[in-house]
Amino acid sequence: MIRSLSAWPLGLIVAGLFFARALPAQAGPIQQQAEPPPFAGDQGFSQALVGAIRSGDYPAALALIDARPDIAATAAGVRLRAELLARLARTSEAIALLEGHLARDPVDALARFQVAEIHFAGGRDRSATLAYRLALAGSLDDTRRRIIRARLDALAERRMLSVSVSASVAPDSNLNNATSATNVEIYGLPFVLSDEARRRSGVAASVSANVQRRWPLTERYAVVTGAALTVVEASGAAFDQSQWALDAGIEMETARDALASLSVTHRDIDFAHADFERWTGVRAEAQAYSNAQTRWDGSLHYDAIDNQLSDAQSGGAYGGAVSRTHFLGPSSLWRVSAAADVRDLNGPEADFKEQQVAAGRLFALPVSTLLFAQVFARKRTFDRPSTFFGVRRDDREIGISLRLSKRDWAFRNVFPFIQLSASRSSSNVVLGRYSRERMEFGVTRDF
């Protein structure tokens, strides 16, 4: 691709150079952008830079840019430095540079496009897809929009294997979601709650991994399998948890940018290092884009629950969820979701219904940080009055979570994050009244 630059006028070389690696061979010249090159009037510097690039001497080209901080600090200079870093296989530095720039200039769709291209070349398909969608929500020329469409089609075809891993440590004010009350009335008589039944604070460490494998059958159909593992170690070991899950099913491409799948699922949950529950069921999922900036996701499930501690807590669970994600620009999006679930359990007083709604937005903040802020409300209503408490239990919870990701801190594409969350639950039963605050420090990596 660089060989063709020698035939272009200098202005087009500089404008097109920033993204030359993204062009397919048949794409032709990039349309010149309205933003003027920051060094078009400096002929000596321009000639030296173009000469280094034409000869493939990217270290020399990068040194030239670094020697001119007035140029390196401009948006075009940042994009050019990132392009050279990527060509030198210094992709983590390139992404960090671009993400830092996007925190200062969140509407630079060209920079988000570059981020997507680097993820695409590195095989980090989920990160690439998100970055391409964010870039499409910004101001891009038609050529790059066509490139993104081609890239998204290629990503859909090559979704053979995806892996994500995360680890975190979280101080938690209420590990067991329990009340701070010391007394409770049962059958109308006062009882004192034991320390084990009351609120417990501590620290939880967790590791999780997800793997998905796709085997194409035809152009539209594929077999999809997945596995997930989560391990949580909490203070005192009484609240340690672990679970593993498997799923396998058929995926169908119903239209361009639209998928549907039907899977069988199994989940095994341990609590305090002992068997707790096993869930086995079916799940239907669908995803579609109503336009380039709006994605819809939906799911339905039915599970048979086998509780290892109490037959009263065994039975069935079914429900569904829907969400809408709207990409607002290169560094922002809105997401709203709603879910409903029903537990049909063996115990005469165990059945309940639960609903939840949530809304969140992605923001770009100073110091190269992205923030996803979300608020939620949840309601759980039991079907029958409780013999113990004399009322039909009704719990309500509201909360907020803030997830901050430092995008210019990365090592081998491992990104750190901090998640702050706070919630408060109210209930007509004292056991359902509590609050919880949590601060999670973690890292995440997609392969």
Distance between the termini: 27 Å
Percent of residues in helices comes to 10-25%
Major beta-sheet overview? 14 strands, antiparallel, barrel
Structural class: alpha+beta
Placed side by side, the strands forming the largest sheet appear as 1-4-5-6-7-8-9-10-11-12-13-14-15-16
User: Uncertain runs with pLDDT below 50, 5 residues or more?
Assistant: 1-40
What is the average per-residue confidence, as pLDDT, rounded to a whole number?
Answer: 84
**Number of DSSP-assigned strands:** 16
Short description:
This protein has 447 residues and is of the alpha+beta class. The protein has helices at residues 10-17, 43-54, 58-66, 69-72, 75-87, 91-104, 109-121, 125-136, 142-157; strands at residues 161-172, 183-186, 189-192, 202-216, 221-234, 241-255, 258-271, 274-291, 294-307, 315-329, 332-345, 352-365, 369-382, 394-406, 415-427, 434-446.
Write up what this structure looks like.
The chain is of the alpha+beta class and 447 residues long. The chain has nine helices and 16 strands. The strands form two sheets. A 14-stranded antiparallel β-barrel has the order 1-4-5-6-7-8-9-10-11-12-13-14-15-16. It has a two-stranded antiparallel sheet with strand order 2-3. It is elongated and about 90 Å long. The relative contact order is 0.10. The N terminus is likely disordered.
